[in-house]
Amino acid sequence: MAGFRSLARQVRDPRCDLALRRYSLRKCLERFAPYGHRATWDHLCARAGFDPEDRSVDPARLVAALDELEEARAVWLGYEVEFAERRRKEKHGGLRRPGSVDDWHRLTWGGFGVAWCDDPRVHPREPLAEVLRRLIAALEREPGAACPVCRGARLRWRYGLDHEPSAGPVCADCGILVPRPVLTTEALADARRSKVLVSA
């Protein structure tokens, strides 16, 4: 099975036919998709200026989408290296029990669904790398009461999400499933009072 970097090379390779280049970009999302596969694809298409169903995309637009994805992946991989180093030091210092950020991180290892968007058409509009920087910054500071990506305060608890965890606080403004560790107990309680059942 091809890895992210070899798929990225195919997207950039002008000797590959257009269908393979588009397919390879889609396959990259099986390795790294911060919003989930469908929402990340929708985001990249919107930002690079092509329709998600377009089968004859301008190659320059495919490469622009790949560039954005690669930048975001570099941000996330940098965070994972720092995270692993921190955990190593904590274990060496005798702290064996992981915290809530660690529990959340185990569900997102590799970057899939880091900022899960259950509705593939509702996701942040900023570049992926900026979204991940904001999310990482929130994970590294004290919990707050708003979405770490858009600063929106309209958090709604949703059940039946197509993700693990299958329930949690979703930002009504940018659509991400907000990681519980970045929110205060009060913000989580407020979100639960505004619960929404997601139908299948």
Give an account of the 3D structure.
48% of the residues lie in helices and 6% in strands. By secondary structure, the chain is mainly alpha-helical. It has a 3-stranded mixed β-sheet. Strand 1 and strand 2 form a beta hairpin. The longest helix is centred in the middle third of the chain and has 34 residues, at 59-92. The relative contact order is 0.12.
Summarize the structure.
The chain has 200 residues and is mainly alpha-helical. The protein has helices at 4-12, 18-28, 37-48, 59-92, 100-107, 128-139, 185-193; strands at 155-159, 168-171, 196-197. Strands 2-1-3 form a 3-stranded mixed sheet.
How is the biggest beta sheet arranged?
A: 3 strands, mixed
H/E series, N to C? HHHHHHEEHE
Q: Quickly count the helices.
A: 7
Shape: globular
Spatial arrangement of strands, main beta sheet: 2-1-3
| Mean pLDDT across residues | 90
Q: Give the termini separation.
A: 32 Å
Write the layout of secondary structure elements.
Elements: H1 4-12, H2 18-28, H3 37-48, H4 59-92, H5 100-107, H6 128-139, E1 155-159, E2 168-171, H7 185-193, E3 196-197
Parallel strand pairs: 1-3
Antiparallel strand pairs: 1-2
What descriptors fit this protein?
single chain; 200 residues; mainly alpha; 3-stranded mixed sheet; 7 helices; 3 strands; globular
